[in-house]
Structure formats: C-alpha cells, structure tokens
Write a structure and sequence with these properties.
two-stranded antiparallel sheet, EF-hand-dom_pair, alpha+beta, Recoverin, domain 1, calcium ion binding, calcium, 11% strand, 10 helices
Length: 241
C-alpha cells in the first residue's frame, strides 16, 4: 500500500502500483510517496464510496476511495466523523494553489463556491470528489456550466458588464497607469459583450455563454482560468491513482 505526504499530513492512496516512485513537486507542495497507513473506519469508507459512485461516473470506485482518503488526511480532524468534515475556504485555496498551480485569488474564491454546492462554506467529501471529477475528467458540458458558475461573481445567473470588468482587471498585470488600464479593460468588456451578449440586454446569460463557447471553444475560460493546467491535473492523477 502506497501513500504520499501532502504538506498537512500523510495521505493513503490505497494502491500498490507506484511503489518506489519518487516524489513529485506540484506547484509549491511536495507530494512524496511514503510507506504508511491511514486509520479509517472501513464501514464508513465503503458507504461513502458506494454513495459517491452512484453520482460520479468519471471515477472508478478505487479512485473514489483514494480521493476520500486524500480528503480525510487534508481535513485532518480525527475527532469528527469522516462524512461530516469539510475544507474551509483558506484550506481549499491553499490546495488549489499548491497542488494545482492556480494563482488568481478572485477566481480561486469563486471555484470554492462552485465546489460548495450546499453553500455551507465548507467543502465536504462528496463535494470534493464531485468537483474533482469536473476538474480532472469533466465533459465539455460540465466544464461549460462550471466556468459560468465561477464567472457569476454574485450568483445571480448573469455575467454583468461590471463583473467582466472586475475579472479582466484582476487578471491584468499593473504595468500601466491605472487610468490607462481601465480604459483598455472597458474596450475589452465591450468586445466581449458584442461577441457573447446575443440578446443585447447588457449582460451574459448562461444561454449566451453556452452559445458563444460552443461556437468558439477558446472562449470557455475567456474571463480567467477556472481549471488547472492539464499537466498539473495529470501529475495529480499519476500520483494519487
């Protein structure tokens, strides 16, 4: 049985095919394969795997078990039942940055809320696995919906002119005077709305976004990165599974 160490603790991968594999460096966090065990209640683990596998088709049961073990180690609260623990926003953003190489604080914050489906400000184990299924192996449709949810900064179902401005400004390096940057961003906002606002109501609905992205898939992450780079995803899978 092989495990790796993820900054905060030892994570049991539940597999044996990677013995002897050297540690990988993902972002700022070192994931190092070590021989160890993680004390988990098997009955609870099997129940969770069965429950999650009924709603997540992109992972095998053995992979879901691995992700549950990783989650349990990251949360690191042995005094709380496995199915009642959660990652708060700071812990989750640290994982996005260190493991998956994401750096945009505004969008990482929104990714947290896209994972947190029950809006309790914690990511539970089911939300963790479901979210990673989109991150790592999501279909085009799943990723389209995820990006739109990330870009809806206040959750009202629309991407407004003001939201687009904030996201684009957040993503630009401040290499010019503030006034010059703002004028350039306003021009980019106008271009985005002209291309994606099909009903000309001054904001982008999901229908608008879906139509635009299906016509040009390069627009999927037009307002900033919602997903890790492919290499970081592959590295995580190679070590975790």
């Amino acid at each position: 049985m092989v495990t790796f160490r993820v900054g905060y603790g030892v994570v049991n991968c539940g597999t044996s095919g990677n013995q002897g594999r050297p540690g990988l460096k993902l972002g700022c966090l070192s994931l190092q394969c070590v021989e160890a065990t993680l004390d988990m209640e098997q009955r609870v683990l099997k129940k969770l795997v069965k429950s999650i596998s009924s709603t997540v088709e992109s992972f095998k049961k053995s992979e879901i078990e691995c992700l549950i073990r990783i989650f349990h180690s990251l949360v690191k609260r042995a005094d709380v039942r496995l199915d009642n623990t959660g990652l708060d926003r700071n812990a989750f953003q640290a994982i996005l940055h260190s493991v998956f190489g994401m750096t945009d604080n505004m969008l990482m914050n929104r990714v947290f809320f896209a994972f947190d489906k029950d809006n309790d400000n914690y990511i539970n184990v089911k939300e963790w696995v479901k979210g990673l299924s989109v991150f790592l192996r999501g279909t085009f449709e799943e990723k389209l919906k995820f990006c739109f949810e990330v870009y809806c900064l206040n959750g009202d179902g629309y991407i407004s002119r003001e939201k687009i401005f904030d996201m684009l400004k957040n993503g630009l390096h401040q290499q010019s005077p503030e006034e010059a940057i703002d004028e350039r961003i306003k021009e980019l906002v106008d271009i985005a709305l002209n291309k994606m606002d099909y009903d000309n109501d001054g904001k982008i609905s999901f229908s608008d976004f879906e139509k635009a992205v299906k016509e040009d898939r390069l627009l999927l992450e037009v307002f900033g990165p919602c997903f890790p780079e492919a290499k970081n995803c592959l590295d995580f899978e190679a070590l975790a599974f």
